């Protein structure tokens, strides 16, 4: 699929991919000078695994942000989803389908709650999803001290670790979800309505879009993506982990990836292809610094600086194009 | 960020739409609940120490108010508080003589971080959500890196005084914590700043930056100063918190969200242009009172966030439904 067609033409999609190519090229060079190998199979595989987890969340996050909302509850929802999945399976292969179904149902419920709070109760999305996050956090803190449940071995073997060449199955899942999300945004009526609502809710409403319904749907889809990420993490870790979402900073990192991908935080502009680029960029930086054996904390400093710098470059470019 | 900018601004004579009434009502209800369960709470000693304990978050909310009312976010304050506490402990290292220089250094540091946040947001046009999120990652990473994963050194008793000591033997009140005195002084200052020309212009900037710009306001300068105020507030909060509860990497964890929640509870609109600093500080007080209340009613530590989340959602939903302008 050509990146250009994914978006309304105003926003420079390839920006993040240019940054990605540059990062990988320079990073590869530096790693090579250092005596390592960035394109080693193991490195690429682990990079794609990291990207798959964050990517699933970020694609969902893109949908709500394009609609002018955002979701800060995803980190807790991911943890919850790993627990629901792993506890339902409890190590038996027969229970995979019900477990996945239940985890996704719970996720959809959380998304519905988020959506209703934002639309019906008119709570600012920042506060609404933060509040829902707190609700989930209380449940997790109250019920769990450590890992619980056991993921079914088949799922661990397939979704968790199986790969085709250097490409993990989970990354293919991300590609499939991204393609579906792209189709939804670019080719369906719901997608166009969502962009319209994010661009200007009042104009959208006056043009006959049912804003509330559109936003609730976006929130449900976002939560489903987070739930899926949870199922993936459960199959990766072999158990449900009550802190995996927050420790991975999935809430803030997913938003950062979306913005890196060129989606406007205010809504109405952007797309999932850029988001995947943003995710890959973050994952490559991670891989490069792992190869260089940079201190984990120092890595975080660099990561913060890169996020700011990258977005500053976009903003400059948008400015030159004559933004208000 | 997500406001509808369609409503034309009628000429309202200084009546603030984001009034104090809802937050006062919520505060009143919580006070009644506390009174029913724990009448002792209103005895001067416990009330004073409660107010002293709440000082840091109230100051953070006041700082955050300036940023939010100008239409931006500051997500870096929690990590700033942590970083400041860890830096203070390492630099002081138990030496009383280093107390004042370090206090000044912390205030300067807070202002500097605010300045950087502000300049990146306004001059480089990076959304403040991303700027301050990046700053959050940078500060947390840097402070862990600098101290190899565990806080080192110790605060001097002189430093800790601000957070834990009190003026003793005051008639009627018993003891007044230094933290409360700091809060009263800086709280009054915050109200004065909010009512000054600067404060009013800041609200105009948040309501409609374009209009403000066209009326000759230097939007970037106002917003940058707002970030500096928030950074300084975080420095003061770090000094009080470090003194009260000591140094750890968790010192400031989650405070940014608590401050933003408090500000919204106080009737300030996210996205800017509406609300008062008094409301923001009352919102923080309400949040602290809520935590105390949960203590009195024996809500278990782990379930707390659930109750807190539910009440915040309820309170914000109620105040949102009251104001017809949204």
Structure, described:
The complex is a heterodimer of chains A (324) and B (326). By secondary structure, chain A is mainly alpha-helical. Chain A has one domain. Chain A has helices at residues 14-33, 41-66, 74-89, 96-119, 125-143, 153-161, 169-187, 189-199, 201-206, 211-237, 244-247, 250-260, 272-291, 296-320, and strands at 163-164, 167-168. The longest helix of chain A has 27 residues, at 211-237. Chain A is globular. Chain A starts with 13 loop residues before the first helix and ends with a helix. By secondary structure, chain B is mainly alpha-helical. Chain B is 68% helix and 3% strand. A two-stranded antiparallel ribbon of chain B has the order 1-2. In chain B, strand 1 and strand 2 form a beta hairpin. The interface between A and B is large, with 51 and 51 residues.
Q: What attributes characterize this protein structure?
A:
heterodimer; A: 324 residues; mainly alpha; two-stranded antiparallel ribbon; 2 strands; 73% helix; globular; B: 326 residues; ABC transporter involved in vitamin B12 uptake, BtuC; 13 helices; disordered N terminus
Q: What summary fits the major beta sheet of chain B? A: 2 strands, antiparallel
Largest sheet of chain A: 2 strands, antiparallel
**Helix/strand/pairing category of chain B:** mainly alpha
Q: Quote the average pLDDT of chain A.
A: 89
SSE topology sketch:
The complex is a heterodimer of chains A (324) and B (326).
Chain A (H helix, E strand, L loop, with lengths): L13 H20 L7 H26 L7 H16 L6 H24 L5 H19 L9 H9 L1 E2 L2 E2 H19 L1 H11 L1 H6 L4 H27 L6 H4 L2 H11 L11 H20 L4 H25 L4
Antiparallel strand pairs in A: 1-2
Helix pairs in contact in A: 1-13, 2-7, 2-8, 2-10, 2-12, 2-13, 3-4, 3-5, 3-10, 4-5, 4-10, 6-10, 7-8, 8-10, 12-13
Chain B lengths: L20 H17 L6 H26 L7 H16 L6 H25 L4 H19 L10 H8 L1 E5 L3 E4 H18 L1 H11 L1 H6 L4 H27 L9 H11 L11 H20 L7 H19 L4
Antiparallel strand pairs in B: 1-2
Helix pairs in contact in B: 1-12, 2-7, 2-10, 2-11, 2-12, 3-4, 3-5, 3-10, 4-5, 4-10, 6-10, 7-8, 8-10, 11-12
